[in-house]
Each structure stands twice: as structure tokens, then as C-alpha cells.
Amino acid sequence: MDARMREAVRYLGYGGHAVDEQTLALIEDSFRELDRAADRRIIYRIFDVISGKADSLAIGKMNIVSRNLRKNLRDCHEALLLGATLGIGVDLLMKRYSLMDMTRAVVLQAAAAALLEEYLDSCQKKIGSELEAEGKYLRPRFSPGYGDFDIRYQDMMLRMLHADKSIGLTMTDSYMLTPAKSVTAVIGISGKKDNCPMQGCEACKKKDCIYRRNT
Amino acid sequence: MIKDRLGKELLFFDGGMGTLLQERGLKPGELPEIWNIEHTEEIFDIHRKYFEAGSDIVLANTFGANALKFHSDEYDLEDIVTAAIVSAKEGANFGVHDGREVYVAMDVGPTGKLLKPMGDLSFEDAYAAFAETMRYGEEAGADLIHIETMSDTYEVKAAVLAAKECTKLPVFVTMIFDEKGKLLTGGDVPSVTAMLEGLRVDALGMNCGLGPEQMLPILDEVMKYTSLPVIVKPNAGLPKQKDGMTYYDVEPEAFAQTMKRVVDMGACVIGGCCGTTPEHIRAMTSACRELAVKEPVKKHRTIVSSYGKAVEIADKPVIIGERINPTGKKKLKKALKDHDMDYILKEAITQQEKGAHILDVNVGLPDINETAVMAETIKELQSVTSLPLQIDTVSIEAMEAAMRIYNGKPMINSVNGKQESMKQVFPLIQKYGGVVVGLTIDEDGIPDTAEGRLHIAEKIIAEAAKYGIDKKDIVIDVLAMTISSDAEGAKTTLEALKLVRETCGVRTVLGVSNISFGLPFRPAINSNFYTMAMQNGLSAGIVNPSSEDMMRSYDSFCALMGYDENFAHYIKQYGNRTAETKVANAPEASGMTLASAIEKGLKEEAHQITERLAGEMEPLDIINKELVPALDRVGKGFEQGTVFLPQLLMSAEAAKNAFAVIKERFTGEGTLEEDREKVILATVKGDIHDIGKNIVKVLLENYSFDVIDLGKDVPPERIVQKAVEDDVKLVGLSALMTTTVVSMEETIELLRKEKPDCLVMVGGAVLNQEYADMIGADFYGKDAMQSVYYAQKVFGRE
Q1: Topology (CATH) of B19-222
Q2: Residue B418 Cα distances to B414, B478, B613, angstroms
Q3: Is A26 helix (H, G, I), strand (E, B) or coil?
Q4: Which residue of B115, B683, B694 is the best one to mutate when testing the A interface, meaning the one whose CB has the most A CBs within 10 A?
Q5: What CATH architecture applies to the domain B586-666?
Q6: Domains of chain A, each with CATH number or no CATH
Q7: A174 — phi, psi (to 5°)?
């Protein structure tokens, strides 16, 4: 099983359990369908980071109060803001399957989440290797809504990236990203190659979560 | 007047604004429109430079000046827009030294929000925001409205309607295409062009996204489809990234050289977008000013479109699916009366899967509000299918409502040769655009000769021309009447098809299956008549795509007439024909029980075994002895962590199939007719993710609850109103985000006040028991099965 299959299985709540053939086939098929329906796009920009008093910091013109993000960006003088999306076609496919075949809708949802993560990982790797040439290193992604990093910062991030115009990424009045399978994130850029292997999931304190990645 | 010069001489736009403002100190995330007031001199200076560089039209700095995007505590939108227009006019006064006539355009960019159904902005709210700012622009003295950088056809339609209805200014529209010629929302050149021409904009084209070189192939495509003057405003190349900053690197001279080719290909309004500067514009105007402009050439293609797809009605016939029409369809009638939108949507998806290219939509029933239902059905259909729709109604009010909110250029069914009909329908086509079906019937009825029908067709085409409606936007229906009442009927129809096609040069449409009304074994007649009609010039048959006979006729016709390259479609469709039939009876042989089919989640098998059991057992026995125990076992397994969500749902869907058979076979026998307990489900206001709610719905239905699904983003009032109206005792609410749990709390509060005997269960990613207690819910369901158990408890079914 490749990495994205494993992720999809994890999102479906299987934990460490074996997956039946029928579901596996469905996941594979969903990835095939997503390859056709998904229109992967990303936009990113690098901004200066200035740490303020207590838990405050500024990324470009955006003033933020968040202890968790500050910790994540420790020793970073720059940060990369990014927005990425699988596009509206995936939403339409989801809606269609929600009507015709709920099992498929659920599996597709998990596969799409895995695909988006895979896409972000590969983009991050590519950007990271470019920056490494300049002696700069990327931290793990950190998104609005993680810990005490308020989801409301999403608004400013989208504006700083012109995400609507460039990749068609917008949000609703309640700060939900549209298209639904999309991400915004902050990635710290550090001059030190400190080891930060902790990905989002393992860093979480909720150890009994059924979606937890097995490490 | 700019309209008089458009298409007759080359007109020059300005270049980028944002990039120049950033150079002068605008910060990312800062609203550029505020500079209209705080840095008037900079804005003025940029405009002046563009006029000096040779621009005939400059865009005022109003790109994001709409109430949805521009939020400021300090400045009024009206003042911002006025200041922008005034600066641009001033720029003209100081920057034009050769006395040429120049113009200031009100620049209208996107709202930055996604429209419903995928986003949360309503079409009407988008319209209102555009209308407001455009009024300010006209008031302040703008000469035209330029709607640009649009990537959503629906948003652009709202903007164009606002411009047309609320101002008297000319309307230019440019969209962003990517290198594949697609919009971010999936539309392509033919679909965008069809819609914009239908809406009668004055000029159309593309801006942003690409550099001049990359725009050439897309321009080529645009020129094939449009009859209007074309605008091209590229960026100074493709965006490049350095140190996390975006930049563009096509130099002014190179830009100008490519723009010469752009003019040569037929564009007549040119300019620049991101990364272009007054230097680019100066180079472009000097290189191109003396070039001869190519006048727009009229195109004659008959095209209908949706947001993502254009369908051309040309030599290869297209299929219009007839199934969404209640005439003679009991289940659809019931669905319309019960407001069962899911049924209608499934009908649409099935037709698409079976091969329809366009879907007819008729919701006319005597006791429903046709206008409201039509508008809602169109909106919902466009959230699940990208096929263009045919709005089929005799109500002018319903027709207009549907045309207004339709995303694309619809097909309209219909107008006829009666003066009254043409007087009502043509103005709508003129305003909203559309390809209209013209029925060959007039005040004197349906002529019984082919010549008579041709005569009416000619009358319709001539009358349409008075409204500026070209014959490419008319398809003629020469009407098929049943041969059981007129033995010559089919011959007349076929003759008329040929005559109209050859004499008028228009495309044709026909409701094919009317021909056999009153006869036995209708598929035989229908499918043969269908082939004959296509052979005689039928361009679009309105048929049932689920009818194998009809599809065989269609597929064979295409294969025979060379419309199916390498027989690819035919082979795909019929290549493994024999293999398929053998599989059918497999589960019978394997001796599987219904219970095990359900537990294994085998839909087909569950269906077939239930068919067999229905002949041997009482319905309630099948349910109580096979179905329910199987579901219970799966549910328990899910709870214990041995069965997982996909399997739970597969079993649920298998059970659903079994239930459907039982319902079909035993309806009306009394045993299954008892009232089922009603449960309302809704994703709360502000929340647009509904997968969790849909999972709960499938399971509750499995346990025979009558689920009233109110959908997503549902306001508290609507939920409460429905609970009161139907006296519902249990409501399930779903929310995904901390930002929307607030709406959940509001809904619960309102329910407590208006319907105190109603219980509330909640679920969703951000919720937990503590949170649920805090907002006053009666029950927190950590997974879908928990809500089933709770519902059973509430209704004393344990």
C-alpha cells in the first residue's frame, strides 16, 4: 500500500485494523477518479516574521496572537504563507456521490484529503529543496484552526495571497474554505536545520484518537 | 461614443495597477482602493502616465470596490468609487495631449467569494453588491463598465445583469483562462462565449492569468466562437516566483511584438494586466496604433451552455433527456409535491450517465408554485450536473425566473408561431440569452402539411430577427403527433424536418416518443421513428436516455453516419454485451441469504434476493427476520470497532435496495403504510459541509425513520418552522467548525422557545459531550450509529 492509500485508510477510521478488499478497491477507484476531477493549484509567498511581546507576532502586515504558532515559528525570521486547493470539480463529485452512493462519497472524501496532503507534501519538498540552496529550512505546516491559531486569520492570509484570483480559493462568512478540499498554512523558514520531524498529527495531544497516524 | 468605435478601430487599454501600487508602497493584504483617498496623487499619476503612453481607456482603481470585498471602517464605498473615477478623469485631462477621445472605465473585479451552491454567496447578493458599486461608478461619470479577472460564469452573469439593469453604460467582460483554456470553475471558451453573447455584452475577451504568448491559442479559440469585438489584456508573462515574491519578466518591446500578433488574429481592444507598466503600453501603442483592425465576423453556431460545458447543436445529433417532466410520471409528480429534490437530482444524474447531452426540465403541476419550484430545481440541478438544461414551461414567469438564475446559456422550450407567444418569449431571449425551441403551431393550429409547418418556422425566425435574435439561436420543432390518430402524421413530420432544415438552415428538435401514443409496444415504433427522424435532419431528439431501444438507434445512427470515430463509443457501449448478461444470476447460485448480502454490503445481490423472497415471504417477515437483524449485527460491529464506516454504509445501501424492492412490491397492501416517525436533519447556518449529516440520514432511513433533510447552511428559523409545521419530535443538527457551532446554539435556543417538546441531537467534527451540554443539546452522537440508537430510544423503539 502506498502512502496516500495508507492515509486514506487512516481517515476512514480503520486505525490499525486490516481493510477489506471491497473498501480497498473503492479507495483505489476513488484516487483514479480524483486524478481526473482534481485541479491541483497552489500559491505561496514569503513574508518577514517579527516576534512581538508575549504570544504576539507579525507575518508581513498580519498581526497574530497565538502561542502555538509562535512556538512553531521559533527562530524563524521568515515564513511562507500558502494556499492550495483540489478545485471545484472535487466538490461537484462529492455532491454527486452523496446523492447516488454514500459509501463512495465517504471514501472519496478520505481519498481527497489524502491527495491534498500528498500534494502539499510534494510542493513543500520542492520549495524546501530550493530554499536549502540558500541555507534556509522549512518547518512543518501550521494552519489556522490548529491549537490557538485562530481560524479567523484565514481571511487575511487569503487576501495576502490574492488566493481568489490566483487559484480560485475563497472562504465563506464562517471562514470555511471553498472549494472544500483546500488548505491554508504557515510554514516557518529557519536558518537552522533543526530536526522537526513531528508532523501535524503526531504532535497532537489527543493520543486516543481513532484517526491518529501509527508511529 | 465608445460603442461607435468598437470593432471599427483599434482601442488601447492601460496596463497593471496593483504592481505599480506595490512599488509605491502598497502592502500585501492592504486594500488598494483606500489609496483613492489617502494617496490620490499616486493614483492620478498612474492614470496620467497611461494616457501619456497612449491608452484610450483606463480602468479606475475600483477593482475590489464592492461591499463584499471592501470592508473599511473609515471610508464609504461611494466615496471610494467616486474618488477613483475622478482621479482617472483628471489623469485624462493632464495626460492626453493629442486631443484624442479617451474613456474611463469603472473596473469591476470579482467579489472574492464563491457563489452558491459550492460557496455561500447567493446570486442575488452578488448582484446587489455589483449593482451598488456600478451605480456609484455611473454617477461619478464612468464611460463604460469593465468586468474583469472573472473566473466564475455565475458571478459574471450577476455582474452583467447588474450593469445592464442598473446603468446605461456599455459593458465589457474579460475572464481569466488557464493554459488549457479553462476557467477556475471549469468553464471553457465556447461556454463562456455563448453565455456572454447571450447576455448581450458589448465586447468580451480575456485578461490576467497568462502572458501574451500563452494567450494566443486561447484567442484563436475565442475567434472561432464569438461574433463580438474581442478584448485581450495579458500579464507581462507567466508569474514567476523569487524569494517568495511574484514577478513578471516579459519586456515592453517583446510584449508589444506579441500584441501585434494579437491584433492580427482579430482582437480589437488590447491592453495589459499584472506586471505591465506604462512602458509596456507605450511600446504596444507605438507598435500597433497604425495596424488595420479586423472587424468582428458573425458566427452561426447553435450553442447552449452550462457553467462547465458547451453543447453545440450541429450535424451530429444530440440527445435531450426527457425524464424530468411530470406528464405521465407518478413518482416524479409525487416527488415534486413532496419537495423530494433528491429524486429529481438522481433522475438527472442517471440520464447523464446514460448519455444525455442536455436535460429538459419541466416541473409544471397544477397545485405547486411553478416559478419557485422551477428556480429551485434549476439551481439544485446545476449543483450536480454540468449538462446544459432546457427550461421547459408554459409559464412566462417561471421561464424568466429560471433564465435569470441559470448559470450559462439555456435552451428554452418554447415559443410558437402565435403573436402572443413571441411577444412574451423573445424579449426574455433578448435579455438573458438562450436557444429557443420554436413550435410550428400558431393561431390556426398545427398545419397538416410540411409546407404549412415550414411557413410557421419562417414566421418565427423573421419575428425573432426584430428582437435581434439570430436564427442560430432558434431550433424548430416541427411536432410529432401520434400516428394512431393520423396515419400520415409521421410522414408529414419527417418531410417537414427535411424541409425546414434545408430551407431555413436552422437546427431542429422533436419530442420523439409522442409518435407512438396509444399503440402497443411503443419502443419498437419510437426507436425506428427516431432513426428516420435523424436521417431526415433531426438535430436534437427529446428522448428517454434510459431506453435501450432509443440509445441503440442513436448509437447505431452515429456509427453508421461517421459521427463515431473508430466506433470508439459503439465498442465501449456494446463491446462486451454477451459477457454482461451471464453474470446476472450469480447470487442465486451461490445460495447467499439476504442477511449475509446485507452484511457484506452487496447491493445487487440484496436487490435480487429480495425479489425472490418477495414471492415467498410476507414483507414484514423479510424485514424483521432478515433485514433488521443483519443491520443490527453490522451496527454492533461498528460500535465494537470490527466494522468500519465504509462497510457500515455499504450494508446500509444494500439494505436500502432491499427495502426499495419490498416497498415497490407491497405498496398499498397496508402492512407498510403506517406513519413513520419524522426526524429533521440539517447542517446549521454558515456550515456548508454536509457529509456527516448525509451519513446519519442514510442510517436513519435504514431504520425506517422518515428523514426530512433540510440540507446545509440552514437558518434556525427554517428548521424551527419545519419542526412546528410537521410536529417533529426529534431534530438532528450538524456543525463542522467552531465558527458555526454558534448557529447550532441559536437553533437550539429558538427550538426550545417555539417547539419545547422537540428533542435535539447534535454531531460534527468540533463537538464533544462537554460542548454539546454547553449549547443545551439533548444528545451528542459521537458517530452515526449513536444517532440511530438515540432516535430509537426517543421513539420508544428499543
Answers
A1: TIM Barrel (3.20.20)
A2: 12, 15, 57
A3: helix
A4: B694
A5: Orthogonal Bundle (1.10)
A6: 3-192 (3.40.109.40)
A7: -100, 25
DSSP label at B188?
A: B
Q: Give the tens place of pLDDT for each residue, B261-273.
A: 999 999 999 999 9
Strand partners, B205: B174, B231
Residue ranges of chain B assigned to CATH 3.40.50.280: 678-794
Q: Name chain A contacts of B186, Cβ cutoff 8 Å.
A: 88-89
Q: Give me Rg for the CA atoms of chain A.
A: 18
How does pLDDT run across B522-549, given as a tens digit for each residue? Answer: 999 999 999 999 999 999 999 999 999 9
CATH 3.20.20.330 domain locations along chain B: 19-222
* Cα–Cα distance list, B583 to B258, B578, B580, B591, B598 (Å): 60, 10, 6, 15, 19
Contacts of B736 in chain A (CB under 8 A): 176
Please give the Cα distance from A107 to A116 (Å, whole number).
Answer: 14
Instruction: Note the CATH number of domain B303-575.
Output: 3.20.20.20
Distance CA B479, CA B497 (A): 9
Length of chain B: 798
Residue where the block lists cell 473596473: B107
Contact list in B for residue A39 (CB cut-off 8 A) is 184
Write down the ipTM of this complex.
Answer: 0.90
For B738, the closest of A45, A96, A151 (CB atoms) is A151
Residue B423, C-beta contacts closer than 8 angstroms, at least 6 positions apart:
none
Extract the C-alpha cell encoding B58: 483606463
Please tell me if residue A208 touches chain B, with a CB cutoff of 8 Å. no
Closest by Cα among B203, B179, B177, B212 to B191: B177
The distance of Cα A65 from the centroid of its chain, to the nearest Å, equals: 21
Given an 8 Å threshold on Cβ–Cβ distance, is B739 in contact with A174? yes
Mean pLDDT of B439-466: 97
- Whole-number Å distance between alpha carbons of B609 and B605: 6
Q: Return the DSSP state at B182.
A: B
Strands (E), B265-384: 269-270, 303-305, 310-312, 318-324, 358-361
Contact A23 B644 (CB under 8 A): yes
Alpha-carbon gap: B569 to the closest alpha carbon of chain A (Å) = 19
Which part of chain B has CATH 1.10.1240.10? Answer: 586-666
Separation of alpha carbons B587 and B403, rounded Å: 49
Nearest to A199 by CA among A136, A144, A117: A117
The whole model's pTM is what?
A: 0.93
How many whole angstroms separate alpha carbon B685 and alpha carbon B72?
25
Cell of B780: 451528542
Residue A215: predicted pLDDT: 47
Residue among B66, B152, B156, B650 with most chain A CBs within 10 A, to mutate = B650
Assign a CATH topology to domain B678-794.
Rossmann fold (3.40.50)
Interface probe for A, chosen from B235, B274, B691 (most Cβ of A below 10 Å), is B691
Instruction: Match 496516500 to its residue by C-alpha cell.
Output: A4
Is the torsion defined by CA of B30, B34, B36, B38 positive or negative? negative
Nearest to B46 by CA among B3, B78, B5, B84: B84
Q: pLDDT, tens digit, for every residue of B632-648?
A: 999 999 988 899 999 99
- CA-to-CA separations, B300 to B173, B194, B358, B470, in angstroms, rounded: 21, 12, 20, 8
Q: Please give the full DSSP string across B457-500, using - where no structure is assigned.
A: HHHHHHHHHHTT--GGGEEEE-----TTT-TTHHHHHHHHHHHH
**CB-CB contact of B141 with B173 (8 Å):** no
Closest to B107 in 3D by CA, of B65, B78, B133, B146: B146
Please give the distance of CA A111 from its chain centroid, rounded to a whole number. 14
